[in-house]
Amino acid sequence: MDNVTKLIPDHKRGAKRRILLILHILVLLMSIALIVLISYDAFRNISFIANEMYLKLQFWICLFFIFDIIVEFFLYPKKWTYICQHLLFFIVSIPYLNIIAYYNIQLSPEMLYLVRFIPMIRAAYVLAIVLGVLSTDKISSMFAAYVGLLITTVYFASLMFFIEEHYVNPGVSTFWSSLWWAFMDVTTVGCNINAITPTGKVLAVILAAEGLILFPVFTVYITNAMTRKSSDNTQQSDNTTSSKPANATAATVAPAVASTASN
Questions:
Q1: Which residues contact 163 (CB under 8 A, 6 or more apart)?
Q2: Confidence of residue 139 (pLDDT cuts 50, 70, 90)
């Protein structure tokens, strides 16, 4: 959002930043609604293509995502630059499930399940923007975005693993066993539950690769936070030490000046 507003005059920038922040928060809330419906369908084994409420809700939410992009486009001074940077987010905001259902396009259940997560790419990008606005420290906002990405990926992967494996894998009897498998896999520790289906094996590779990439980021963040805290404590101690001689000097000079004045 900073890229959208940094070229806008100062007297207009504040209002437009608030408008964009409100739109992005609405995008996040609508994305949460989609996640809740996806989870509800998964737990109750409901076909989301046959669920008219889900299709209608995703259609209007995708339209709102497109509206959010259009508003940003008109606020951005360099139109072609914005188009080049945000074309992907416009593409992922298209309601593909509604198009597939309307034209009766035949896809595999695995592919259909992946298609319903496409709008979440836009939600992940907006989440990073909102965290960047709400955080005063750039490193903290980046760390929060990584944590959000990790939790979201683990949750969605556990849902997909549960749907694909619980009919054929005796180790996946409930969603919680699937969630346990996902957490153990992303930490690269391993789990006593082994993937059987091709989708489950692909998810195992993706989660392990994500864990190898993201967990070093956590280590760097913690190390940086401890280093900054130690540096602040050292600086504060130095300031306290340097102020003591000055106070002592002032205390010595004051009686001398008073004595001279009395003479």
A1: 42, 113
A2: low
- Residue 199 within any structural domain of the chain: yes
Count of positions (residues) in the chain? 263
Kindly state whether residue 155 falls inside one of the protein's structural domains.
yes
CATH number at 168 reads 1.10.287.70
- Average pLDDT for residues 159-179, to the nearest whole number? 88
Cα 246 to Cα 78: distance, rounded to the nearest angstrom: 55
d(CA 38, CA 36): 5
Instruction: Note down the domain range covering 89.
Output: 1-134
Mean pLDDT of 15-32: 86
Residue carrying the six token digits 């420290």: 137
Q: What is the CA radius of gyration of the chain?
A: 27
Give the residue from 31, 22, 86 showing the smallest Cα distance to 57. 31
Residue with tokens 């066993």: 177
Sequence letter at residue 193: I
* Residue 95 and residue 12 share a domain: yes
Q: What is the pLDDT of residue 185?
A: 92
Beta-carbon contacts of residue 241 (< 8 Å; ≥ 6 apart): none
Instruction: Examine the domain organization and report whether 28 and 101 are in the same domain.
Output: yes
Distance between CA 119 and CA 4 in Å, rounded?
Answer: 21
Q: What is the pLDDT of residues 199-237, one digit of tens each?
A: 899 899 999 998 888 888 777 778 877 887 788 777 777
Element (H or E) spanning 260, and its range? helix 198-262
